[in-house]
User: Fold these one by one.
Assistant:
Number 1:
Amino acid sequence: MVSMVQRQGDVIKELEAVFKDRLFTEPHILSLYSHDASSEVGVKPMAVIQPVSVDEVVKIVKLAIDYGFKIIPVGSSTSLSGNATPKLENTVIVSLERMNSIIEISDIDWYARVQPGIKDDELNLELMSYGLQWPVDPASSKTATVGGVISNGGGGMRGAKYGPASHWILGLEAVIGTGDVIRIGCRTVKCREGYNLVQTFIGSEGTLGIITEATLRLAPLPESFVGLMARFRDAESLVNAVIRVKRDKLWPMVTEFIDYMIAQVLGLEPMYYLWIGIDTYSGSEQQILSKLNNDVSLSGGEIIDKAFTWQEFSKILEPRRMLYSATLKAAFNDYGTDAFVAFEDIAVPTSKLPEAVREIQTLGQKYNVKMVIGGHIGDGNLHPTVWARRSDKDEMERIMKFFEDVGKLAIRLNGTVSAEHGIGVQKKGLLREAISSRNDGNSDYVINLMKNIKRVFDPYGIFNPGKIFD
Amino acid sequence: MVSMVQRQGDVIKELEAVFKDRLFTEPHILSLYSHDASSEVGVKPMAVIQPVSVDEVVKIVKLAIDYGFKIIPVGSSTSLSGNATPKLENTVIVSLERMNSIIEISDIDWYARVQPGIKDDELNLELMSYGLQWPVDPASSKTATVGGVISNGGGGMRGAKYGPASHWILGLEAVIGTGDVIRIGCRTVKCREGYNLVQTFIGSEGTLGIITEATLRLAPLPESFVGLMARFRDAESLVNAVIRVKRDKLWPMVTEFIDYMIAQVLGLEPMYYLWIGIDTYSGSEQQILSKLNNDVSLSGGEIIDKAFTWQEFSKILEPRRMLYSATLKAAFNDYGTDAFVAFEDIAVPTSKLPEAVREIQTLGQKYNVKMVIGGHIGDGNLHPTVWARRSDKDEMERIMKFFEDVGKLAIRLNGTVSAEHGIGVQKKGLLREAISSRNDGNSDYVINLMKNIKRVFDPYGIFNPGKIFD
């Protein structure tokens, strides 16, 4: 034990020599980095470093190889599955928050090169002046960093049409577990240079290396837009409206919802709220709106607001972005700092949505849990969220059973146990169940492929231990 | 030598017992499978098998492990880089042409499950009756199979907006080099179940396993469409029109071109032809058309045809689909069966297109080669194609130098040496150069990552040897 402490002291000294006032070992700062936005409980890391260059990142990785410490690369730690929560004390948190520049925006080529620490909204604000967007838009876009979104493979609000993060990343620079810097991918949408290493990084939750630069694919902001906010008496009517829209072959960029409980917390009438936003060219707005009108009213809903630009729509969408904070507020109202919140994140094929929503409500009653539900309903992505008093063993058990059962429900309905939050710590069991369900009851050989890929990039097991399958 | 022939006899006997009349060893059939649509010269494989089930595919792989023979999985062998050309005699071609069913189409969930041997156009014809499309559309879509398109990571005509194959594949079933069947990915667009193994398969050119089923993401067919065919006196004017369209923030689904020589072969006036197709909703057509009109005429072009549905547009696009066959026709007119055709496939950022086209024409003159050029100009993807008399060593050398120099040009312009055709045999050198150019003059560690990933899926080195980096 003494020699380990001794050794840890040596590491800190070496790191201090390089990083000076960008190395933190003060207990209150270590506490801040001992967890992420999920309720997962972590341990204090041994240090937090804020590098400012790829060379500094290489130095950290080489020291980790020499001294055997672990690294968790983080952006804003907005993970809701415990992806960024340290579980081992010999961990150094590498926070990319100071590597947050935009290196280049090309308004003809529709790409941007950025450092990983830039926040999603900051980037999109800048892109707006070029008439462009990076359409990867998690609800946490004000806080989430681009590097975090990439590592997490996030989807978000514009994913139903534009696809998840993986469709919007052209190239990466990253430091892998050997200390080598690799520059992979291209600046063009088409890029067929051997195996797609960029895609292997996307959604790898910081387990393969540290992303130090990204080349992002951009899209033009829609020339015109038709957006609405509607409300419904029950979840099933809302889901039916979504299905009608798909049957009409309208292809919304955004289809979001929240339930009556969240609405209440936000000061809205306690009903189910739906947002649909369709990107289009000028001249088509009225006919799209009349179809949407029809779809909503035939499903028993009522349109309560409309928008005809993306900017206007972003404003009326604001309550949906509050799902996370409103849930936390409800949980803290109930239990104060003793609250534990579990964020589910399943997706099911659209046709299974009515059954999924019904069953989730039944499970909520069965386990007698406090639950809200919302999500990206256009791509079948639901976020049922439950909370309990940490100190109440029975209630904690009930929300954990609910969490597991919702995952199993997703599997039964041919869906996924993780749509965009990733596996982190909290979904490791469900990941195995999902893979088993498709592979004749055996998850081992698929998980082993992943473990072997991990070894290819991180042969010494430095990065984010204890996550996904570890 | 005798024992190898003996052993080969034993293999054939074992295969015959299982596959009966779906095993072929007749020399003229082996000849057919000794090459692909590129001019790459291959060797006769020892046998061709047409399995009809995943179990049969497993049997073949297990025999390959036991007997040490190699496997090349093929669809219609439309590769233009030699991806499907056998280079070793102890190769069994596994042709998926009989595994060509559509298993399921879900018109609400917008996915289809298919076997790999179905042809791209056959699938899209069926989907049309649902108002849906699989928007991965290589020029060879009449012949190319879905499995081949996936293995090749193809892009095609609708890629500038809709992205390449990798955006349209949700899940795969494949037999890997251990003989295990893996089912990876989901039926939903969002799917974050650990590392993205599906993406590793896409574009892997048959080197990691044999795809036996695919779950494809679908999109609605556009409600309305504005398409045009225009012609220009020179390439630069055409490219400028494309840049104007992007500056206008129009986001075409299709932007294609051919040059004056191909036009001539097709019986059109010898000019440069551009096709632009924009998917939209009804009501916006006239204002889109007026913008396009402006962009074309300000660039010195002339609109010669228009279309207002995708189906109509497909018809006027037909000459562009003939790029491959028209080039072959020109080459065979010149040299008969002695013709060797080299298909380049670079992409550069849009802003570099004028320079790229100019330099390619200069290189064509420098090496005094017969050249045509066309491609998916909306995503910067150019296909300069040259031919020579195989028996003319000097001319062959000149086209090879041209081929190499065009690849180097792409690297210099921050583009890629392979946009959608893959590496196969013909781009192995250029792949290393492209990777070196971004990685401080060293391609080894990136290539080694790929070699190690290959080992994860194919530990015995069974699949498609001699390709990409091998």
Number 2:
Amino acid sequence: MRLIELTSSDDPRIDAYRVIKERDLVGRGGRFVVEGKTVLDVALSPRNRFPLESLLLAESRIEGLGGLLEGAPEDLPVYTASQAILDGITGFHIHRGLLGIGLRGEMPGAEQLIAGLPAEALVVVPLGITNHDNVGGIMRNAAAFGADAALFDFASCDPLYRKAIRVSVGGSLIVPFAREGSAEALLDLLVANGFELIALSPAGKTPITALPRPRRAAVLLGAEGPGLPPHILARAHTVRIPMKGDFDSLNVATTSGIVLHSLADAR
Amino acid sequence: MRLIELTSSDDPRIDAYRVIKERDLVGRGGRFVVEGKTVLDVALSPRNRFPLESLLLAESRIEGLGGLLEGAPEDLPVYTASQAILDGITGFHIHRGLLGIGLRGEMPGAEQLIAGLPAEALVVVPLGITNHDNVGGIMRNAAAFGADAALFDFASCDPLYRKAIRVSVGGSLIVPFAREGSAEALLDLLVANGFELIALSPAGKTPITALPRPRRAAVLLGAEGPGLPPHILARAHTVRIPMKGDFDSLNVATTSGIVLHSLADAR
């Protein structure tokens, strides 16, 4: 780890931090942004699947970091700056004062990811989930309950979007994921690899606690409101979370937590 | 229902809508704000425990409301306005275009609320939860799984804060709740009324799925990060949600969903 003190917001070495806002919007490209102590803690641990390019820390925060930086690779540039310089770099107030840039590198596609899974596997399959909080919440639960992978269709948003990583509390860095293609193509791939498709739906056939865990389980989650479309439900074993009759409404991240907990418990 | 077309942002009849932003911040007073179609749907149903004072709708949204307004009381004033007038009233862009003012009225305190509960009861007890999303998420889950009441300590934020109602998808209007006093005082009250205290904690003694449901169960939830303090845990039956060893982190609203689902299922 090399501590490098910045004396100007215009230093070209930290150009990657200038486009944080755009990176939020496009949610793609070779780099992503990590922020905050809890996420940095995961990012600097062996659980993080992605290399870090650099860190950028507010001087005032360094003392409170404790052993956080001890896990940092020797050659990782760690830039430090006053809060004013930091805000000047990003163009808005970074109140957490702790940022890092990660590198996606070559990410495996869905097919490659599935090929590497163990014989007994649990994957979560968010389809058409465009809300960053929900994508982050699903990745947090996937990490908490040890899902082997997450497979997003391309209509879903990127788990490496800044807010999704933050809400995932680093889960996006831990759980292997792919995001590509249509829901149909993902389901074809899963079925061809021996996965049982389990679709969550308020009108599902089996209550979740009565579902025996298949050796290879793929949990399909749709967006709140529309839910999973009929042609997807028709291909899957539909499962419901029993609720009180007149309020049939669960957040999709909470749903993922209940289902992953239930299936992890049944293992 | 009386449709009243507004022609100016200065109309004194809709003064209650001018202070929406402050109402967000203070989160108290005799009125609260409901917004969006899904929440208005709950607010206009018999499940809503609070009277409505008025509605304020963007003209452009009225056609798409379908039968939503059919449940409105005959004497409820429903103001309509152009989006420009609407934004002029609230001082910021109301992109949902659907607002209402609710009245708290005389809310029962915790003691009165508990006195009215059935012999078999499930209550959720959020302690020191200051995040509006989490309070809203807990109220949504409490409604979904039919919790009989929610008891917040005063350190927690108000379930009738605008964002909390929105995130609760109207659950805040359905589930009877009180918010008062210290955690200790609430626990005294619950114990005196025959409730078993169940405290969620990563180091809890019993896995949640092994917990038999007590006739009267009070589920204690602490803030993410600090969790419940040791003197609260010491008074309760501690329960854990088993997770993968190295990522011991669940959102508190998700936690409430898993626990309420598990206890509702055990009934």
Number 3:
Amino acid sequence: MSKYGAYVKFTAKSGERQALADILLEAAAAAQTIADCEIYIINVSDDEPDAIWVTEVWSSAEAHQASLSQPETKESISRAMPLIAGVESIPVMPLGGKGL
Amino acid sequence: MSKYGAYVKFTAKSGERQALADILLEAAAAAQTIADCEIYIINVSDDEPDAIWVTEVWSSAEAHQASLSQPETKESISRAMPLIAGVESIPVMPLGGKGL
């Protein structure tokens, strides 16, 4: 089965980027125990003062989809939503390389 | 020192994506021994038939820059160049998360 990857760009409401990053970093800490979540890295961009990019790799698209219905995920999303102005995702399929 | 990350989108010339992916996967295999290169994952996109996305994380921007002047890197680039129609990069600064 193919792995599933994505670059997810969150645009925070003005002044809320750090608070949103903190919630995403908590979600990343919780992901340490989820075997199907292989990579979940929180990044900022110097060029885009309100942007947070999350690099995700999952064992499969199904595992990623299933994670969205977990109570912990829903709780994180509900806390993050008021801080978010927009979300865009670039889905990718990892072929291989260093760090997988 | 801050880590350096990037999502680098290579657009292959028509019909050349697999050949370009093979060169990038070879570069990723060579990166296994480069401690400053933490992540170098080769991805394709179902939505963009000529696109290859490379997810990179380096120990610092300086380490990434230094890698570009290595003979092995230059050799890979010279083999890849004839296959490439365009390159765009989204530089990011990793804050933390799973997989770093």
